[in-house]
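Protocol step 4 of 5: obtain the predicted structure for the target chain.
Materials: sequence only (see below). No template structures provided, no constraints applied. The aim of this step is simply to have a reference model before the mutagenesis design in step 5. Sequence pasted as it appears in the construct record:
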Amino acid sequence: MKMQSSKHLLGTVSVLAMLASSAVTPANAAASNGLYFGGSTLASEAFRQIFNCYTGATVGTGAWTDGFQFSSSFNSATPTPGLLPTTCTVTSTVQGMYAGVGSGNGVRGYIANDPKQWYGGTINPPTTINLTATNQQPGFPSAQPPYVDTLNTTFGAYPYPRVDAGLSDSPLPATLAAMTTAALTLTATTAAGATTNWVSLPVTLTASGSATANYTTTSTYGAPIQLPAFSVNVAIPVNVSTFSPNSQITSGGSIVPGGAVQLSSAQLCAIFSGLVTNWNSTTTIPYLDQTGTQQTAPFYYTNVGNGLGAAQYTTSNVPITVVYRSDGSGTSFILTNYLKAVCPLIDPPTTGHPNGSYGYTAIFGASNLPSTSFSNLITNINNSAITGTWVGASGSGGVQSAVGVTSTQGGRIGYVSADFVKPYAINTQAPYSASLQNEQLRAAGTNIPTTTTTTSPTFIAPTPAAAGLAWGDTRLQTPAATWTWNDYNIYNNTFTTPVVQGGVTLSGQSVLPLTNVTGAYPLSGTTFLDLYSCYSVAVDSGRVTNLRAFLSWYFGASNALATAVIQNNGFNPLPASYTTVIRNKYLSATNAGRIAAAGTGVGGCTGVTGGAL
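Step 4 output (structure tokens):
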């Protein structure tokens, strides 16, 4: 199946090669230009489909088709991975292209205003990178992604000609002064003409090291714009293939959404701290009861369901192998933001134990979290005997593949966006995910799932509705017209005044992981669209018009198509309180803060002498 080969690429160097999409089907062959987005792999599949729906056409041809299909069988409520609504018609002839290179690289390209920074991997590549048609070294894209305009003329080859939007699941720095990044200088030393175009193979790229790149000032690009794109769930995939006895929750012979296992917040803290290292463990772990009092129980205490009482997850030796993002990852940020908010509450400092009896304050409460680098958490654990067995993988697809479904991967656990686990994943070999306990359940005394469950979890599955409920928490701030980019940082919505919840006093923690809304998924977040206020139109006179047209469609007051596509990926659209402010401030034809074209001196270009190239 063609899509299967693409999914293999997604977890390797060529996450770019699959998702840096710009070839068009015949219905879109007359596309006048492109929109160039790059960054988050969490958002990569969803945005590929959103762009497809916007133009009424998929991308790629022959063996390199993106694998999505417009079908009358589309049903986001079921859901139907890989399918698109037939009601997506040609809204625009401007095709969107997306390079799925990870949040860290997405922000790097945005701050540097340089599309060459949208490569896969880390900021520390080898000095020489040899790219051939068959040798694509980890960390860098192929010389040309498969999905390039058929004629290689309209859109051009990779790297993209410009940065229209960077995407990241972690927020931009709070100040302009902190908006700096290390940007590589890449020079082609072989292949004629490859200095400006990486399309010719073979080619050797020389990385001359990194230099500091700055967002510069608002007089160059206008003020930064950071907008949440949708509410996302970070799912916890678990490979249960070797668990015996089985207590997975099934329906019709298949594990239901979130039915792989049910995990309490206490169990997640125990796993990601290294306190528990085997699925057959009887180790005692701490948890909070509904009064906020620390209690202890065996690690397996929530492993109930289908009429079974609490029992070890497996009677055999099955190590818990954490699969984590080895690249700069906004998904890592969302996970560590959750762990930092929740875990120190379970194991607070006490007399004689300033880091908590189990060390949670030192591990999760450290100042280097939350972070896009999971290695910070590994450093805090400071136990290579445990973390040395964990597995690093690049990109969401890499984690999906590393957790896997085979018995040789049994016991692995990771973290990915909901569209990389069943039932939302396109890859038929995707793992199932866990359901998680939220604070509302804990405060209600629901620490252990019901033993009578046969078709649905007691804890919360990563579904679109559950993400929407988390964003409906009334303790979150309401967007306002005066908001700037930092105000849209949902993770910075904290308890600014003390709040008592289930016997625990909350003050300073991030609200979203501690949501007390019934049915809300606690490991929620967003992918941010990082935009400029002022764009150069020297090369493409329709650039700003095309960008604003897409964003106006996407953030429309009632966009059933975008909603359906988003929910088919396991996510949920933003609340109307967000989209209304976004449209009025940044997309209105008359608002003083609107995205504008350089040289006009209006909107976001007021007082700007340059414009993002």
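Step 4 remarks: Residues 1-32, 131-156, 191-202 have pLDDT under 50 and may be disordered. The chain has 16 helices and 26 strands.
Proceed to step 5.
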